[in-house]
Design goal:
Helices cover 45% and strands 14% of the residues. By secondary structure, it is of the alpha/beta class. Strand 1, helix 1 and strand 2 form a beta-alpha-beta unit.
Amino acid sequence: MVRGVTGRLDGRVAVISGGASGIGREIARRYVAEGAAAVLGDLNRDLLEEVGGELGPACMVSEADVTVEADVEALVAGALAAHGRVDIGVNCAGVGGLAPVADMALDDWNLVVGTCLTGVFLATKHEARAMASGGAGVIVNISSINARQPAEGMAAYCAAKAGVEMFTRVAAMELGPAGIRVVGIGPGLVDTPLTSFQRELPAMRAAYLESIPLGRAGTTDDIASAAVFLASDDASWISGDTLFVDGAEMTRGYPRMLGLLSTLS
């Protein structure tokens, strides 16, 4: 049973990049439950078909690499062709990595920054173009507490997510006159496939939970609830801000990732 269904997104069309799993998938579920049509892009064809089958006619899927502009442009064009409009964009494709700065391979840096930051730029660019003719829309960019909270071994991810937060502010400033709101969500630790590594290491899991005053990891539903609110008319005067959904995790220090790993090896 989907909680909090109110029909707040009735009749709207949402493009969701990174929509096949984790946070993106849960946002797609909630948006469809709230009355929206969802167009999902992702690299994982099998998971795309799985979620498309789960959500039925309200959901359309398309294989897309957010670092390839032609793929992103085609994803948005497909939504326009199918529905004639784009009202919401949710940009949450992401990938992580762990390496000290002095040992990090350039390819690893480029993968993280390309997916987490350049992908948000490309998706916002084409979503905004599609929304401009309608004179309204909202774009939700998924950032992270690591936009502000440094974590050892995560320089690429932290830099990319900090970039997403600032990019969101600039895009909101530029697109506001066209009636387009741009907002961010900064999750703390959320149990998804991307964060499965810490669930498999009890000491690391304990260190993460110790850093969260509310005492638990977040769920994808926690983030989806924020995404429904920010996309709805209830948030009609919110733009340029990032809402951190983290159980107050940013009030404490981040776990010492490299130090923890060295004790486990």
